[in-house]
Amino acid sequence: MSEKETLIEVKDLTVHYVLHSGTSEAVNHISLAMKKGETLGLVGETGAGKTTVALSIMGLLPVPPAQVKSGEIIFEGQDILKLSEKEKKKIRGNKISMIFQDPMTALNPIDRVGDQIAEGIMLHQSVSRKEAMQKACDIMEMVGIPAVRYSEYPHQFSGGMKQRIVIAMALVCNPELLIADEPTTALDVTIQAQVLDMINQLKKKLGTSILLITHDFGVVAEMCERVAVIYAGEIVEAGTLEQIFEFTSHPYTQGLFQSLPSLEDSKAKLIPIPGMMPDPADLPEGCKFADRCPVCEERCRKTLPPLAEMEPEHLVRCFRPLKAK
Amino acid sequence: MARYIGKRVLTMIPVLIGVSLLIFLLLELAPGDAAQSILGDYASEESLNELREEMGLNDPLIVQYGRFMKDLLLKGDLGNSYQTGRPVLETILERYPMTILVAILAVIATALLGVTTGLLSAVKQYSWIDNICTVIGMIGVSSPSFFTGLILIFIFSGKLGWLPASGSYGPQYFILPIITMAFGSCASQMRMTRSAMLEVMRQDYIRTAKAKGQGDKKIVFHHELRNALVPIITVIGQQAGVLLGGAMIVEQIFSIPGVGKLMIDSIGTRDYPMVRGGVLFIALSFSVVNLLVDLAYSTVDPRIRSQLVHQSKKKKGASA
Questions:
Q1: Mind telling me how many Å the CA of B236 is from chain A's nearest CA?
Q2: Is residue A116 part of a domain?
Q3: How high does pLDDT run on average in chain A?
Q4: Residues linked to residue B261 through DSSP beta bridges, in sequence order
Q5: To probe the interface with B, which of A119, A149, A163, A166 has the most B CB atoms within 10 Å?
Q6: Which residues form a coiled coil (chain A) (predicted)?
Q7: Coil, helix or strand at residue A58
Q8: In whole angstroms, what is the distance from residue B164 CA to residue B107 CA?
Q9: Which domain holds residue A48?
Q10: Does A214 reside within a domain?
Q11: CB A202 within 8 A of CB A15
């Protein structure tokens, strides 16, 4: 891989949700780095803390109950977490934008879709209303929606079309980083492929880096150059696409692969990972995956394994990694 | 849209017929005798009977109702008042502007006060502003208007002498009645605004707007309030309907010569034609307000708008 400039760096991020009933440790000491123009997949099951990481980068954590306990997010040389609300607003939607999971609810039902796209342009660029509308029309065409539908309302569009509008909204200011939080989960499979393909093309065209949040390894294989697997608020394995797919080292990552249906071996049974992810309000002391791990040892329950480098860029948080190259 | 309005106006007719039938039956069940109340307690049985015969009170109910409807539909006549002998319609039309004026002012005051406080308590949920608004709102909703009205008269007319206690001779006469009406109803307006706003604030599209980098003011007024308007309009409509029917108690306390006071007086003197006419008018105002509310929904929410257009298109297609 060629050396590229680092775009954003999340360092030792810890976010807790403090509620009356207890503290939920959603994200614990996560570090990530993304280079310009690359697509990083953040993979994990529901509740693993993926969205919390995304919202931290956007500065949209619901405070309260969320509290950033430690860490920094370096973007363009400054720590986003320390910026004032006004400075964050200048970045949001402009340099970093986000696509949310459910396009059905992500659009304001009483605003014309074109106006919703133009809204972002008017906020971040000094253009007239007319120019903003023209730009909105252009980007609508780019995501495959005829510009004549500018004046229509969200309820007049199908789910896939709505997601295209959401993507248009996110890309309209040509952001450096696009955070896509499960962008295709709420869509039909056929539409999923279309939307992913479109995101890929737009990425090439605009040079946007993408942080793709998903639980679907199929999507990861199609879209990402690097992958980070997150479990119970911690990164358990990270590396290039090849390292993760060919040299799967963490038992959890392997479990995820085994629970995917395979086309090559149609007789192979799916092996689900037994048990449940631990309650983030009551995390175990040692390795968070210990209770579900097939190769768990005594020490796994007592001490948290460090995120060790198996080979350059390939990090694994396990005392007994499965495959050393 | 015109088609829809036309349809709605047509559906008012059966409602009004139903109301007229109901009020006819109810007045028949009510104790007392119109002839007696006209001639007084010492009238002879003969003269009473004569008058009843003359007024058609001895005819079967169905005949009386038929006569009433015939006059109403063919001549637009609601009969004459037993008390004054003047046409009912004329009297009501004379009194109605006063009720409309007071009602509109009270609705505006309620909406302004209720929506502003509701908005504040939603945006600053659980803050001291929210708590104060809630407490004042609870007091407002639990004080009946005769109580609020009398307290206000006691303070502002009696003790301070700032405002007149009764009558309707100038703008200052309307201040206390309007405050009385608004105080009682703005609590429900405030609670509805608050809960509608809180509901909208949780929606994904608000997060989307924030993710665009949109500012707080625009988010509250453009994205949140406009989406919360449908339930807010519902409450405004309900209150407008009630107040247009004549805020009977408030009009009585402050001696405002509106329809509400007219109704109370007419019920007291068993002036049945007047009561019937008044009730029909109130029902009509309710229906009109309901129609206006539905039209307001469709201007606020494009989903409702396209539903209405779709419905009337479907009807057109079916009839073609």
A1: 20
A2: no
A3: 86
A4: none
A5: A119
A6: none
A7: helix
A8: 21
A9: 6-86+93-104+176-316
A10: yes
A11: no
Q: Determine which helix (DSSP H) or strand (DSSP E) holds A209, and give its type and residue range.
A: strand A209-214
pLDDT band at A323 (very low <50, low <70, confident <90, very high): low
Exposure on the CB side of residue B208, measured as CA atoms within 13 A: 32
Please check whether residue B115 is in contact with residue B193, taking contact to mean a CB–CB distance below 8 angstroms: yes
Q: How many CA atoms lie within 13 A of B296 on its CB side?
A: 16
pLDDT value at A298 more than 90:
no
* Nearest-CA distance A183 → chain B (Å): 14
Q: What is the mean pLDDT of residues B69-93?
A: 83
- Please spell the DSSP secondary structure of A79-118, one letter per residue: EGGGS-HHHHHHHBTTTEEEE-S-HHHHS-TTS-HHHHHH
CATH number of the domain within which A16 lies:
3.40.50.300
Query: CA angle, corner A27, sides to A289 and A277, nearest 5?
Result: 30
* Distance set, CA A154 to CA A19, A276, B127, B291, B302 (Å): 35, 37, 35, 26, 9
Comparing A274-283, B103-112, B305-314, which segment has the lowest mean pLDDT?
B305-314
The pLDDT confidence band at residue B8, using thresholds 50, 70 and 90, is: confident
Six token digits for residue A236: 């358990």
Buried-exposed string A260-293: b where 16+ CB fall within 10 A, e elsewhere: eeeeeeeeeeeeebeeebbebeebbebbbbbebb
pLDDT digits (tens, 9 = 90+) for B36-76: 777 777 778 888 888 888 777 778 888 888 888 888 888 87
Say which of B213, B223, B300 has its CB closest to residue A108: B223
A106/B204 CB distance under 8 A = yes
**A298 within 8 A of A267, measured Cβ to Cβ:** no
**What per-residue confidence (pLDDT) applies to A3?**
58
pLDDT in tens, B217-258: 888 998 999 999 989 999 999 888 888 776 788 888 888 888
* Rounded average pLDDT over A8-37: 87
Q: Are strands A6-19 and A22-35 parallel, antiparallel or unpaired?
A: antiparallel
Interface of A with B in 281-320 (CB under 8 A): none
Of the residues A89, A94, A102, A110, the best mutation for testing chain B's interface (the one with the most B CB atoms within 10 Å of its CB) is: A110
Residue B267 has pLDDT above 50, yes or no: yes
Domain tally, chain A: 1
Domains of chain B in start order, with CATH, are 2-75 (no CATH), 93-319 (1.10.3720.10)
Within 10 Å of residue A318's Cβ, how many Cβ atoms?
23
For residues B201 and B204, give the distance between their C-alpha atoms in angstroms, rounded to a whole number: 8
How buried is residue A244: exposed, middle or buried, by Cβ count under 10 Å (0-12/13-18/19+)?
buried
Contacts of B306 in chain A (CB under 8 A): 153, 155-156
ipTM of the shown complex: 0.83
What the block records as the tokens of B230 is: 């449908």
Between chain A and chain B, how many beta carbons pairs sit less than 8 Å apart?
Answer: 72
Residue B182 CA: distances (Å) to CA of A12, A70, B141, B259: 56, 51, 10, 18
Question: Do A119 and B301 make contact, defined as CB atoms within 8 angstroms?
Answer: no
In a domain, A137, yes or no: no
Evaluate whether residue A302 is within a structural domain.
yes
| Option in B204, B210, B226 nearest A110 (CB) | B226
Q: Cβ of B126 under 8 Å from any chain A Cβ? A: no
Task: Assess contact for A216 and A199: CB atoms under 8 A.
Answer: no
Identify all chain A residues contacting B207, using CB atoms and an 8 Å cutoff.
60, 100, 106
